[in-house]
Specification:
Oligomer: single chain
Strand content: over 45%
Structural class: mainly beta
Distance between the termini: 44 Å
Helix content: under 10%
């Protein structure tokens, strides 16, 4: 049925309505899956407690943690020392250009309030998978609204791990739409052929189904170069 919980492990014991699972535990429910070294599942309350090498995957997120608590009935849960990414859902409307970049989090505690809302505590958040190559925000707490925005409290903005400024509250847009014109974050990289690279870019949307990205990069071994990217999703009649 729709509410079927599948559990697999090397060994299982059951006392009343509580399953104790040990070794290569895998629990699946609807569209999400959790794996761990050991876990318990209460059939009456729907509560899952997983420990050791926990990996949680769902359509909107992928998280690893030391320990996880998740309720199959409410969808709520929390993760200890969690890290991973939260992804915006795909757009419902066609011919709308969107961004598919995930939003990365690393936190002492990650609370899953529902499939579209997360709260992180004592966290690092960023749209860059590698903090050494981009920006990040150290925050006391933040509310992540999947496909919309991140509201951080007590936020320290860092670029290449260097603190730049502090603000009591910071709001970052992480939605895949609507798109807005603006200056992109600086790009920094290293190439064995081109040398050290420093670049900047500008993004300009052109209606709902077209956009343009213009950029300029300076390579220590090759000099200055430019980039141009045009995207469009025309219909059969356009």
């Amino acid at each position: 049925g729709e509410n079927l919980v599948n559990i697999h492990s090397d060994s299982q014991t059951k006392e009343k309505q509580v399953y104790e699972l040990h070794g290569h535990v895998e629990i699946t429910y609807h569209q999400w899956k959790m794996t761990s070294d050991e876990a318990s599942y209460d059939e009456a309350t729907g509560e899952i407690v997983a420990r050791g090498n926990v990996v949680f995957t769902a359509p909107e997120s992928s998280l690893t943690a030391e320990e996880a608590h998740l309720n199959t009935k409410s969808g709520e849960g929390w993760f200890v020392n969690g890290s991973g990414y939260i992804h915006s859902p795909p757009p419902r409307r066609k011919r709308i250009l969107t961004t598919e970049n995930p939003f990365y989090v690393k936190a002492k505690r990650v609370d899953r309030l529902n499939e579209s809302t997360y709260r992180v505590s004592k966290a690092q958040v960023s749209s860059c998978s590698n903090e050494e190559m981009g920006w990040s925000i150290s925050t006391h707490s933040a509310l992540v609204e999947v496909g919309d925005k991140v509201i951080s409290k007590g936020a320290m903005f860092k670029f290449l791990r260097v603190p730049l400024f502090y603000t009591p509250v910071m709001v970052n847009a992480i939605g895949n739409e609507p798109r807005r014109a603006g200056i992109l974050m600086p790009q920094i990289g290293q190439s064995s052929q081109k040398g050290f690279m420093l670049g900047e870019g500008v993004y300009v949307p052109m209606g709902r189904s077209m956009d343009v990205t213009l950029g300029i990069q300076n390579y220590s071994r090759r000099g200055v170069g430019g980039t141009f990217e045009f995207r469009a999703t025309p219909s059969w009649t356009v």
